[in-house]
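Practice problem: predict the structure.
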Amino acid sequence: MCGIIGYIGRRKVIPVLLDGLKKLEYRGYDSAGIAVMNADGLQLRRVQGKISQLEDHLKQDPIEGAYGIGHTRWATHGRPSEENAHPHQDCSGTLVVVHNGIIENYLILKQNLQREGHTFITETDTEVIAHLIEKHDQGDLESAVRRALSEMEGAFALAVVSSRDRDKIVVAKLGPPVVIGLGNNENYVSSDINPLLCHTRDIVFLKDGEMAVLERKRVRFSDFEGRALDKPSERIAWNPLMVEKRGFKHFMLKEIFEQPDVMRDTLKGRLSLDSGEVRLEEIGIPRDDLRGIRRLVIIACGTSYNAGLVGKYFIERLAGIPVDVEYASEYRYRDFILDKRSLVVVVSQSGETADTLAALRAVREHGPLTLAVCNVINSSIEREAGGFLRTHAGPEIGVAATKTFCSQMAAMSLLALYLAQIKGTLDRDVGLPFLHALQQLPHKMEIILGRAGSIENAASRYMSYNHFLFLGRWVNYPIALEGALKLKEISYIHAEGYPGGEMKHGPIALIDDGMPTMALIPRDHVYEKILSNISEIKARSGRVCAVAFDGNDSIKDQVEDVLSIPETIPLFTPFLTSIPLQLFAYHVAAKRGADVDQPRNLAKSVTVE
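Answer:
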């Protein structure tokens, strides 16, 4: 949602904070600000807009400091403005707070504080935190924060600095992620790992209900009640170069091109062509428990939901287990029916998605097995699920998910094959071709990426349209949904994904020469059905671009454009059909002048409801 950064140590603080904010900007970019401490007290600089505008402001009105905190905002309470930008101050101007999350009882707290004489100048819920801490502050910042926390309800990750209790940054977490970076006579706090990798690989992940006090030479950990905690650090293997653009114009384009390696990394060590087995004992759920499951529920949001839909086809086809796929934001409020023979799989790139985390917590009370599929080490969802299957996509900076979608589908394919082994629904001879097909997919992805120029040319021919329809059937129906999602979220073109069979039930009324269709038509058992859909569109003057297998020359006579992909077994075509749609959306958005990596109104990780 929002991004927070903090640093105390031996370096110049402004460059560290600005560099961290740039790496966190995918979390929000409505406004930004920093606060640093120097001999004169706290110095603030805030702007409406992106980090580049904050950087320009600091060049015109520079400040120096010994340590400080920063924030990049995705607006929840209060419109984007300089006034509502973080950090927020108390009445005295001696204390500042940066915050990611939502304070649900902020209105009651605000009214009480106003009656006590506190003056508010913003529309945000975060300002309440600053005044609450001020109310309790008697010169011990840690104690004041702890007392304020006892009055707050909601979700928050916050960092606080005070000129009344210097040389420390106090941090607290309940909900959104907080990462502490440990250095040599310097320490960091961040909303995720990325800003820390160029400074340290020694990381501590705060859990809900925990606090940290950062000083130059040490970090102290405690719970909200003040009990000291011993939290060992973890060594992170991610390379800082993984978050750089490497010559690509946008992070999204770089991440699309990383998918063959992501596929290899996610499969690595988990399948054996010699034995014909998938090895996923790492998930931590006993095989006997998995053997007994009779139903599987996948819970996710956004792109992860679409990956879950693909997973449904994998698991039902290979393991013979009925699968329901649910939106986390709705499922958490359902009267769901689960028992110990159910497996609930929660899918989240960040492992911090608020709705998905809340759904996980709700279902655990009903006793099912739970499994997290996520990309971020030691995330909240990974910690709270009964087992986890980690994807290996590395950091993804572009707000529109691409390589993490690929890695989630890969994880789903592995889970499907693993469950099939355990339940005996797929013997070695039948299962081995699926393993071979998975191993060959990275190379076939590279072939598609080598054709990016032709996909860009096609994008040029469609970039002026303001409406688009995506059609798919069977396992490629979720890819139609994902293709439409990618186009709408980065180019702002209205796009809808549908199963081909639903054409006659409404969408066909929209077809004319102003609404082109992207049709996914690999050769499978529904090939003739989607051909029929294309005929219906053409009869109504609709324009069609098709994603089809190499060598399908006949389709070229029936559509305007063909984006060709190598052939693979039908069940695994989503790994290939998704890439042309990602590239198509990217090039359309770029040619229309959209901000591809930071589309309006979106944030990478939605850590509040």
